[in-house]
Amino acid sequence: MQTKTNSVAVLDSKIEGLKIISAKMVTDNRGTVRELYRKSIYSNYLKIADFSWSQINLTRTNYGAVRGLHGENMSKLVTVAFGSAFGVYVDTRNSSKTRGKVVTVSLVPGVQVFVPEGVCNGFQALEDNTEYLYFFDNEWSSEISGVALSPLDDELKIKWPIPIDSNNRGQISLKDVNAPNFRELIRK
């Protein structure tokens, strides 16, 4: 097998500042190396002054389970390290011209999403033991400000690939079930 190399490709989405990124990969007989982040390249696309990652988390999530929708006051770069997921992003920023827009992305290893501060991020694992990787530009704490939305909000018109049972804590947390819907959020 010959070595195959691709370069970084970055696409805009219908949410202002939310970018869908195909990571650089090199594949040969031994396998594949994915470049998760290179400041000199990504800074051209993300337009964030003096940007660096402060925390990196990896979650392992069971088939059909949902995490989110959470929009903390931090930017994130998210991807799947193993498995696959249905990623959902909702713009909740008061000053954004794309407020209320929803974007969904099929996430597999090599596909990344840059989530700007204040945009809600959530996902549903499409395989058992899906590993979802988060790069944060700020350290997370329970006191960090931000918003949460119910992933079950009918008005967002999210078509989750696997039906969600709101009573199944192995599939969705009580915190996420009880989060406000978008209409309640904008009334605050």
Automatic annotation (TrEMBL):
Transmembrane regions listed in the UniProt entry: none
One cellular component (GO) term of this entry: cytosol
InterPro entries registered for this protein in UniProt: RmlC-like, RmlC-like_jellyroll, RmlC_Cupin_sf
Pfam families assigned: dTDP_sugar_isom
Entry's Gene Ontology BP terms: polysaccharide biosynthetic process
Active-site annotation: H70 (proton acceptor), Y134 (proton donor)
Residues the UniProt record annotates as site (Participates in a stacking interaction with the thymidine ring of dTDP-4-oxo-6-deoxyglucose): W140
A GO molecular function held by the record: dTDP-4-dehydrorhamnose 3,5-epimerase activity
PANTHER family cross-referenced by the UniProt entry: DTDP-6-DEOXY-D-GLUCOSE-3,5 EPIMERASE, THYMIDINE DIPHOSPHO-4-KETO-RHAMNOSE 3,5-EPIMERASE
Protein name: dTDP-4-dehydrorhamnose 3,5-epimerase
UniProt organism field: Liquorilactobacillus cacaonum DSM 21116
